[in-house]
Structures are given as C-alpha cells and as structure tokens.
Amino acid sequence: MNVAREGAAMLLRDAGDSAAAYPLFEKAIDQYAESGSLDTAAMTVDKAAKVIVQQEPEQAIKLYEKGLALVQQSDRSKMAGEFLSQITRLNLRLERYNEAAKAIRDEIEKYVEVKEPGRVGQLTIALVLVQLAKGDSVAAAKCYQWVLEQCAEFEFTDDARACRQLIGGWEGGDDEQFQNILKDGVLRSMDNEYLRLMKKLHAPQGSGTTEEGGEGEEEDLK
C-alpha cells in the first residue's frame, strides 16, 4: 500500500501537482513509522522532500521536520544532521531567518555533542550571518558567546575571528569596511546559501554596495 502511495505521489509530481503529492508521501511515511520501519520512513522523507522541494519548499520543510523527529528516535545522527541542514537551507531560501537560526543552533548542539569543533565553527559563522540578516547584532554577539560556552576551543579559531569581525564591522556602521570583511577567505568558503545571504548584508547607516551578482552557479558566487 505504501509503495502504491509513493508511486501515485510520483505520478502527481510528474504531472506538475506537487501539492497533491505531499499528503500521499506523508501518509506513506506515517505508516512506515507506525509499523516500526523507521529507517524506511526516514529514507522516504528524504526522497519525498527532494521530489517536491522546488514547487513546495514549505511542505518540504515539514517533511524534513517529520524526518528529523523519526531519526532522533532511532539515533541516526548523520541523517539528523542532513535533515537539519536541509531545513536551514530551505528556511534561508524563504527568508525565514528565525526558523533558520533555530535549526542552526540545533545543529551546533549536535556537533558539540559529537566533538566536531570544525563544524561548530562553520555553523557559528552561519548563525552570526543569519542574525545580522535580521539586523540584530546583539543577538549575533549572544550567539557567539553561547558557542564559546559550549565549545571553549572555538575562541582561538579563524571561524571565531571571522565572527568577531562580522559583529564589530556591523556595529561600526561603516558599510565599506563591512563589505571588505565579507571578502575574508573564511567567509568566502561558506556554502552557497550563505554566500547569497552575504550579498544581501549591509552595515546599518552605511552607503556602500556589494558587487552585482545573481544567484547563479557556484563559480559566480565564489
């Protein structure tokens, strides 16, 4: 029955009706979970979200959130991280910065727990950027301090330096200087969704502009 639902959902997607495909995928996922097949349910989440994400990003977020709850029950930490990353990316795409910040914090907690300070550093930059996109440097500074409390070794990394420069540059109110900070190699190595976000950032009361660039290929963003 679940396979049939998935097949019907795929046909609806192919017909351009991803909205109608969503409840069929959701029902299949729920039934896999209810029967104890959590791994199959999680894999179906991943497949279904990728199928509908272009036309129905908000529904894809709901699927990833459902999947996250499932894999946390079955202690699949790698898949949990992947689902959190997808939730963050889609919320950034929709400019839902509060939701993106929450997902990033959840990711940071996960990587602190498994002692991966490198990933913690990258995610802290991401969190600071999202808070600045909201225009809230105070929240950005609090997030930075929160990470220091979770992961003491973070303070002496290039990622931490980049965070301090971002916050200081923003609060300095000199957009030209802030745009120069955004050219830092540590920041330019961030994933594409954050490179796109950086193109939108301007220090308050500044008059500088970023270089023109669309949301094109990775080479253009780098």
Nutshell version of this structure?
The protein is built from 13 helices and no strands. With 222 residues, the chain is mostly helical.
Notes on the protein architecture:
This protein has 222 residues and is mainly alpha-helical. It has a domain at 1-63. Helices cover 74% and strands 0% of the residues. The longest helix has 17 residues, at 18-34. It is elongated. Residues 206-222 have low confidence and may be disordered.
Any key phrases for this structure?
222 residues, mainly alpha, soluble NSF attachment protein activity, TPR-like_helical_dom_sf
Radius of gyration: 19 Å
Distance between the termini: 46 Å
- Broad shape: elongated
* Mean pLDDT rating: 85
Main β-sheet: number of strands, strand sense, barrel status? none
Query: With helices defined by DSSP (H or I, 4 residues minimum), what is the helix count?
Result: 13
- Uncertain parts: 206-222
Give a count of the beta strands, DSSP E runs of length 2 or more. Answer: 0
Percent range for helical residues?
Answer: over 70%
Strand content is under 5%
Structural class estimated from helices and strands: mainly alpha
